[in-house]
Amino acid sequence: MSAGVISRLDGPVTFLLPMRAVIALALLAGLVAGLLIVSLMAGSYPLGVREVLSTLAGAPPSDMAGTVVWQFRFPRALAALCAGALLALSGAVLQTVTRNPLADPSLVGVSQGAGLAVVAAIIAVPDLPTALRPLLAFAGALAVAGLIQGIAARRAGGATMRFILTGIGVAAFLGAATSALLTYGQLDRAMAALGWLAGSVHAAGWGDVAVLGLALALLAPALVAAARPMAALRLGPEMAAGLGLRVGRVRAWLITLAVALAAAAVAMVGPLGFVGLVAPHMASRLARCGIGLHLALSGAVGAGLVGLADLAGRSLFAPVQIPAGLFTAIVGVPILVWLILRRPAGGQP
Amino acid sequence: MTGPILPRRGPASRAAPLAGLAVLALAFVWHVSVGARPIPPGIVAEALLAFDADVLDHVVIVDLRLPRALCAVLVGAALSVAGALMQGVTRNPLAEPGLLGLLIGASFAVVLFVGVLGIAPPAMIPLVAALGATGAAAAVWGIAAAAPGGATPLTLILAGAAITAFLGALVTVATLLDERSFEELRVWLTGSLAGGRLDQALWALPWLVAGLAVALGAARQVTALAMGDETAIGLGMDVGRLKARLLFAVVALTASAVAIAGPMGFVGLVVPHAVRLFAGQDYRRVVPWSALAGAAYLLVVDIAARMVLAPVEISTGLVTALLGAPIFVWLVRARL
What we know:
The complex is a heterodimer. In chain A, 72% of the residues lie in helices and 1% in strands.
């Protein structure tokens, strides 16, 4: 259980490492790398493994191959992987903090809040720099998270259940508001927003990858710092308080962190559903381990999921592109149903 | 069962239905008179009572506005009664055709038949929608009942959300794959009265009337059922058959509403709860009042959908969601 915990015994420092989790993480990293290569190969201009590798090494076999890989496929694949990792981490943090297996940024409306903020901005100020989108998304998502917490947590008892139901209601409201904005906005602008709303990475360029990578790089240290309080929160709020944690404040910070993770992803690729729900559960199926490794595993699973969804979305029905968000929904719903069937969902009413 | 469950009101209860009908008529005339070309209510009444094909306003009213208003009345009444029945039978304040997946099931079936298979005789659409609604209802109920703790409000809503997300994604995939044949369906899929599909409404009408008739006929038993299966059995009711009849009513009403106007969420949630505030818990009053109030509600909502951002029109289904979702959240807070 104690991943990464250094226990000072009498002798030399010992380090307890759950082998299964580490192996799973290594395998996942390999799979994601393989997925990256495959998504660089696949498309209307197919490339072989060797061509892709030599292009990546800086010696493209043809100009065409260089353009296709560097301009189109590589940023798109990287954006998918980063967004998947961000959403999965957000879901993992939310599930740990709320102690609710169903917490997912898209199920409870956090993603939709980010989406509404960004769509409103796109329609009001069409030439808004894309780098500002994450901030807007963060503001929108944070407002929604605060609203849901405020509505759901005011009364004692059954708070987790109300949290989910409130989130579903808020998500429906925000979805309708966003659609109404789209009908109001001029059509060409609305179309740009519409493709983005389905959760799609098809227009991703290096700018998006830079923003996503920056978000990942900035928020990862915060996650590392949050690992210890999260490990305590996993034991329940009473136990965490007993361990000397200021539960209320820590929880607020962690929810803000989860919202920031989701907002960064949503701002760039739209509200991809169910990744934050599915990835942490798949991770804990792969290996039971401490919170640090669990987060890493979740991130890797999320990256793989979205990468796979994007690859499937652009190759299954080519030349039609199916947004990755639809595939993640189709994969995610059976897992949601399994979660509903498996346990008294979201605690006791 | 001879004594009334709730004390009957005095003379006021005789005047109330008339007042309700008057409100509905007012909403109807208001709905017909507003639009891109405002028409005074006097001319509306004139067009309805003494139609003259030479007057442009009369033609606009009868050919364009009247179908839309009639559709709003039918859809509003159907969805509200369906919602009221579902809340009574499942004893769940949050039950509603949209939240429990019936609307998306019906829409999915219609999309599958009209868009993908290319079969679109208007007579078939209510039937197809009914099949889809039944399938989705069965799936949602099955998931919720199999969950530990049984079909609680939470498991029902979660299962409904899951089915809605799943079928919604499939519908979007279908529309993306074949954009041309979905041109018309796309507006319909957000819940819209804009088409004024009176031909469609005519085919859906028998279903709607049958559903309403069953609902009104069974209203007395629903009151008993809402107090628990044991109570209903103790009162000598055949609960299994009653539930089957009510399921038929709910599915027929939902399917005809979807066939006319597409999925309109939250109507079946908002209206019955509002009705209970003044009509009490007796379904003999709740069902007819829901039909009346639902019709008036959707007329007013449709006016808002057309006027708020004029000349742009918002899909009516979006406005019902914008109004209904906060009420859902409030119900979650107040009742659970």
